[in-house]
Amino acid sequence: MQIRNVIVFKGEITGDSVRYVTDGMTHATNGTWYPTAESFMDLGGVAGNGYVNFLALLLRITTDLRIIYIGQLLLVQVILFSTVYIAKKISGSVTAGYLTCIIFCLFGTYWGEICIPRTEILFSALSMLALALAVKGGRFSVIGAGAILAYSQWTRPLALAFIISIVWLFLYRGDKFRSYIKLIAGFCAVVVLLTTFTYFNSGEAIFQPTIADGNFLMGANEDADGSYNYVVFEEGHAGYIPREKMFEMKYDEINEFYRETGINWIKANPGRYLLLMPRKIFYFLATETYSGDIYFDNHIRTAGRDYIFSLFDILLGRGERSFAFGDAVMIYTQGFYMLVFALFFFGVIYSMKKGYWRTMSFLYGIFLIGLAASLYTVGAARYHFPYLPVMFITAALFVDAVFVRRKKKIKKLK
């Protein structure tokens, strides 16, 4: 399916991908790297630093966008093998590894996501590879895990979830103090290297992307409904900044405005902010159709409730268009996601009942921190993308323990 999509997809890029590909193409053509001083003139500053440079590297080979899709296809294999390795390592069961692989490969999101140039796949590949190295242990593996997580953080500011989980893994395993030093040393060395690079390349000593507070404001304003609702930035709403004024402001000033506006609204409406939490959880977990645009050459958006409702109308014969191949893929993807999520949910409960939840706790921590990040900002289905491997491993271990080897206990992580 992945190879099929690389060959068949002919749509133009849309959404966040436009900015990433445009920046990557500009730097590939000019022989430069991101960000430069001009990059900070973009609205809100720089975004996806590590990912844009990844695109710039690929587009130096050829400006055909298929090179991006092929690159992302290969990165998905990194996620796959890292996930399977972790499943086998923590369970002591080859069968659990096979089950994880089967669930992963049947999961429709990865089929279409490779043709959508955004930070999810690179971030997930780096983070899961780092996690696998940490689970493996050893001097160079742990240093490598820290270094890779630093580049992951340069791509998307969510690597903290994986850093915390690795530290917890070391505590649970009883690793010696030098393991923590190696992890931190690897991470800090690359952070210093990338920050220094950015300073000499752009004149700004920054490390990670600079637009995070906009997401916070989307989740804390008069128009917030818990989802990725962009209305707050439109004219007449709390987050609106006229374009001419925005171009005169530095990225930190824009972020400060967004942050203070959101905080002030929370102070004035603490009850309403808390009531948004269940909605954010729902939007974070409920759907899995965000990678389906490519089956319609990006002419139809499949993320969100509007597509779901339109799909019901199509199935009932009331739709404005006929049923399409992409609709069938989305029905399958959503259905399989719901099955996997159910297995994940029961797997967590089963692990607590049987007492092996401690072995799994470093993985559960990743998921919970990711969920907390959405509660702080907004709930969007694709925000759970980096944490899908946690679901796969938990689901596979549950199936293995309950249906394959009922009488055997999952080994304690060594």
Please summarize what this structure is.
The protein is mostly helical and about 425 residues long. The protein has helices spanning about 1-10, 15-30, 50-60, 65-90, 95-105, 110-115, 120-135, 140-155, 160-175, 175-200, 210-220, 245, 250-270, 270-285, 305-315, 325-355, 355-375, 390-405.
Features:
414 residues, mainly alpha
Shape annotation: globular
Number of domains: 1
| Structure classification | mainly alpha
How far is the N terminus from the C terminus? Answer: 37 Å
Provide the succession of SSEs: HHHHHHHHHHHHHHHHHH
Counted by DSSP, the helix tally is 18
Tell me about the biggest sheet?
none
Strand content: under 5%
Average predicted confidence as pLDDT: 93
> Cα-atom Rg, whole angstroms?
22 Å
Q: Indicate the low-confidence ranges by residue numbers.
A: none
DSSP summary, beta strand count: 0
Polypeptide structure, described:
This protein is an all-alpha fold and 414 residues long. The chain has one domain (2-213, 277-404). Helix content is 67%, strand content 0%. It has 18 helices and no strands. Helix 4 (66-91) packs parallel to helix 7. The longest helix is centred in the last third of the chain and has 30 residues, at 325-354. It is globular and about 65 Å long. The two termini are 37 Å apart. The mean pLDDT is 93.
